[in-house]
Amino acid sequence: MESGAERHVNKPLLVSKFGGGNRSDVSMHRKNPPPPQKEVIFMAKGSRDVILRDRLQFDIDATTGDTALVYGRVDLSDYVSIVKNEGLAIKEIRFQPRAPDQVLGDWPQWMIDLTTPGAESANLKIFATTTAYENVADVGIGSPNVICLLNRQCTQLQDGAGPGLYGTVTEWNWYGTPDLHPEGYDVVTDLLIGVSANGVTRLQGTTAELDVMIIAEPKKITSKDLTQMLTQAQDL
After folding, report:
1. CB of 194 within 8 A of CB of 129?
2. Which CA distances in Å does 208 have to 20, 61, 67, 97?
3. Rama region for 53: left / alpha / beta (φ>0; ψ in -120 to 50; rest)
4. Residue 236 pLDDT > 60, yes or no?
5. How confident is the model at residue 37 (pLDDT cuts 50, 70, 90)?
6. CA distance 38 to 7
7. Max CA pair span of the chain
8. Which of 53, 70, 160, 228 is deepest in the core (most CB within 10 A)?
9. CB atoms < 10 A from the CB of 57, how many?
């Protein structure tokens, strides 16, 4: 990659269907975007950095507003090979949840429909990892091979006396640093992006999206690097 320009990968970075745990009725799939009108070059921070990006889709249950844990697999086979001692140093990961049914396509600030009296809460959890966890409750920045985690929470307290009498709290929490420049986090396998949602009644019955951008640098992996990665995978 010359001058750190963005690499446009012709083959999909994500496989067509993903399952979470033992569930087979929930899937995350890659959206096929329209052909670009023209090539746009974006500069990364390092001269050898590459920018990988894609868009995932995941379904939100029409009744509960839930999405069971699902994964998107970012195909890094162009850059990683244990046989050839080739790896990728992940330097930066960015997530952008989207709601195409909304006017601007933005994820709503209030994830609850604001119609039910009492207390309600909604959660959205997004994380990058090289290990597929079956239980989303086990995932935190102290979990082996978890690089970063974005947690979106919304709480509503509505008075049953009448409409419009309510209080809400909403917050974004990013755990783990999104910026690992200049050295990065070494990987020799594909990267998994996990998504789980609970009680997102504002978007129930819709297909939501998750945009992912990864900045990374191809590198040669030494035996010392492999040992360090193995130690990190076992450290909890």
Report:
1. yes
2. 17, 11, 10, 8
3. beta
4. no
5. very low
6. 14
7. 68
8. 70
9. 17
Six token digits for residue 211: 């945009």
Cα angle value 148/150/152 (rounded, 5°): 165
Distance between CA atoms of 43 and 6, rounded to whole angstroms? 7
Indicate the DSSP class of residue 106.
B
Output the six-digit token pair for 183.
Answer: 């050295």
The residue range of the domain holding 125 is 2-32+39-234
**Token duo for residue 204:** 């129930």
What is the reported pLDDT for 204?
95
The letter for the amino acid at 162 is G
| Residue 14 near residue 72 (C-beta atoms within 8 A) | yes
Calculate ∠ Cα 52-28-135, nearest 5°: 100
The residues that bridge with 67 in the sheet, in sequence order, are 197
pLDDT of residue 25: 33
Measure Cα distances from 26 to 21, 59, 151 in Å: 10, 7, 20
pLDDT of residue 117: 76
CA atoms of 89 and 214, how far apart (whole Å): 10
How many distinct structural domains can be found in the chain? 1
- Say if CB 17 and CB 184 are below 8 A apart: no
Assigned token pair, 111: 């994830």
Cα 68 from Cα 21, distance rounded (Å): 9
**% of the chain exceeding 70 in pLDDT:** 73
**Are 199 and 66 contacting, i.e. CB atoms less than 8 angstroms apart?**
yes
